Amino acid sequence: MERTVDESGLRVSVSGDVEVATYLEIAEEKYGHESVPSADGAPGAQETIVVLDFGSQYNMLIARRVRECRVYCELVPFDTPWEQIAPLNPKGFILSGGPASVYDPGAPVAPAYVFESKVPVLGICYGMQVMAHQLGGRVAPSDKREYGHAVLHQNDEAAALFKDLPASVPVWMSHGDTVDEMPPGFRSLAYTDNSPIAVMGNDSGMIGLQFHPEVAHTEHGKHILRNFLYDICGCSGAWTPGNFVAEQVERIRATVGSGRVICALSGGVDSAVVATLIHQAVGDQLTCIFVDNGLLRREEGERVLDVFKRNLKMNLIQVDATDRFLARLAGIVDPERKRMVIGDEFIKVFEEQAAKMEHADFLAQGTLYPDVIESVTPENKAASKIKTHHNVGGLPKNMRLALIEPLRNLFKDEVREVGLTLGLSEEMVYRQPFPGPGLAIRIIGEVTAEKLEALRAADWVVMNEIKKAKLYRDLWQSFAVLTSSSSVGVMGDHRTYGHVVAVRAVTSEDAMTADWARLPYDLLGRISTRIVNEVPSVNRVVYDITSKPPGTIEWE
Ligand code: XMP
After folding, report:
1. For residue 86, is pLDDT > 50?
2. Most-buried pick from 151, 279, 429, 440 (CB within 10 A)?
3. Selecting from 3.30.930.10, 3.40.50.2000, 3.30.300.10, 2.40.128.90, what CATH number does the domain 448-543 have?
């Protein structure tokens, strides 16, 4: 199992079976929290699609694709009661795939309201089978899985689902059971070589798909989903970052009233967007706390001050806690110990600062939708423990702060769009992730001021050259690591004995897997020459060509 973290550092990292608490986890154990549902970014009056989650590995993708079509959607457990669904006033339902067979004892079924509410329903894979099974059709059990590409041929080219699509399209299959008898009123809208009923539909907008439209392998999948959303459910695609900002500003104002909000700024995208959004809503009622732990990249601290204090004119308390962090890190070589110590020290500094404020009522956090989803889906019962921990804030002892999480319904790419809409620069919004423990986990072995200085200089060269080569945004992360090896070299007439720096650059979608980036040799050459010339204690540079798995992105 592997859970990782966003750049805000407000997250837990789990690798193997080891849970690593960051300061927020420690905080929750100490103080607990209250949350404020009215400020959590709930959708209000907009058009909403409800995706019922039957446990497919692809279900988060379904939600993303729907959002990419500019339609708001929520992914909820398949057995969510109607009282929770009714306020969303859904324009349609999507039943996700899942690992079960409808014939398994206790197999999950769709709640009756799905078929009674008279709005369109799209069943995907297991969602289609459960629809057939519950509405009086028959599902053929199968021991074999059909897995991979197939070609879908339409029976009914006039079907709204296929609007503007070619008559035959490649699709991605991953299923065991199939529907062999449709429920009354349904007809087959399309077939593949193996499945005579690859798509079924009736006149009330109920549709079943045997294939997965949400995966990238189904080339026209998003088009098919868009047809369902726009032409069958009647959605208009009004879910835009601009609307989101306007609505959230109102909500935050209503929730906060004349109260005071505190927010920890890390320099990462999520906390930057949260702070800017809240600042737009309540101005000086927001105070941001930026803890400089001395483990940041070169110029990071100044950049945060520039953007938030000088340009956006926010109340910003900056604390230079470098000495405290370095003192705590002295003698520590174990990576998980480093994380614990950094998390613990952060919370101490944060508490001290918060306690100096006259009063505060709310703590703002950059929790994102993937965290929320993972904590509620049936497939992720184990993950929910992690999530409830790491989403909770470091609450000063003498304050009961309520939590505001205005981004909790957004995916990362939506957060970026919201950031741009709020006027944050592309540089800020498209920043590569940076781990909370910072450069400490990129120095192998003990962290010292001298090593930090060397790593910062080497890292600066990497960043600089990658940006000059216009590759920064194509890479998930690119950075330098100060290894614990030293090597012999020769410079001029002198023998040298210096640090070995490793350069790491990876491409990735979500950090769960990653590939080493095929950087041009010339670029690598420039990086190497500059590091050795510009960083006195370094005399050798190597390039890390390990993918994840089996490696991880960070070295520690
Ligand atoms: P790994 O090294 O596990 O990293 O492949 C995956 C992603 O998580 C980031 N990372 C962290 N972020 N605190 C953080 O805030 C941490 O302790 C931490 N460890 C790893 C890493 O930079 C990458 O984006």
Report:
1. yes
2. 440
3. 3.30.300.10
